[in-house]
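Researcher: Good morning. I'm working through a list of sequences from a screen, and I'd like to move beyond sequence-only analysis. For each chain I'm collecting a predicted structure so we can compare shapes side by side. This is the next one on the list. No need for commentary yet; just the structure.
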Amino acid sequence: MKRWVKWIGYGAAGLVVLVLVAACALFGFSEARYRKQYAVTPATIRITADSAAIARGNHLVHSSAGCIDCHGENLGGGTVIDQPPLGRIFATNLTRGKGGAGTLTDAQYVLAIRHGIAPNGTPLKIMPSSDYANFSDEDLAAVIAYVKSVPAVDKELPANSVGPLGRALFMAGQLPFLHAERVDHERKHLAAVPPAATAGYGAYLAGFGCKGCHGPALAGGKIVDGPPDWPPAANLTPSGPTKDWTEADFTRLLREGKRPNGIPVNQAMPWRFTRNMTDDEIHALYLYMKSLPSQTTVSS
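Model: Good morning. Structure tokens for this chain:
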């Protein structure tokens, strides 16, 4: 009997050791990716503080770009994730106030928004740069001009941390929140895309406002950067549930967060800021959506 007790003890100790080794490996490999240094030189774009540029930036930040969803209406920052097993991730205070990022240079803003990289060269967490890489130079400059113009907010936020579940999901490819790993850092960008009520302009808006959730073909499916409890995004092509929607139906969704039958959509749908889009922008998105070829949603 004593011999069996001894072997059971050895087995339990061995299991504990294996768990500790696995935990250390998980931490080490994930931390290596979190601390990777990116040697990226952002393109130089001309940023002006004129009223037109600031107004354009204000509109983008509060509508299709959705910056306020994480950084708050006043851009003073906020909580993105506060679930210790997953992690505690906070959106930066972008203002010149205490605890803010007001000292960033123009190049550092470009590096963060377009490349997902912090001033120290490490990747930012949950900064949707693979979407914002689709900004034209002119619109990116407008966003930066607006961010630099907002009133100071004194708000110091805790440091980001990723919990064991978050690290496990990250290493398993289920929570790929380092957009710097996905951005083409050598990509050439459009100088400007003039606003117009056309399908072409709708495609441009969808590049940074829709495709991050609905996929590059807008065929829907699992939301890559969403938490585990988010439902799949809808297929917006003629194969999906929106195939018979009128423009009024589409507008109601973006402005009120309701389907044609009046049922509210899941809160993952960011109608809280798409409601600020102009009529022409919504018309352009609708035309683009209706121009898409049918696609099958790929489940994962």
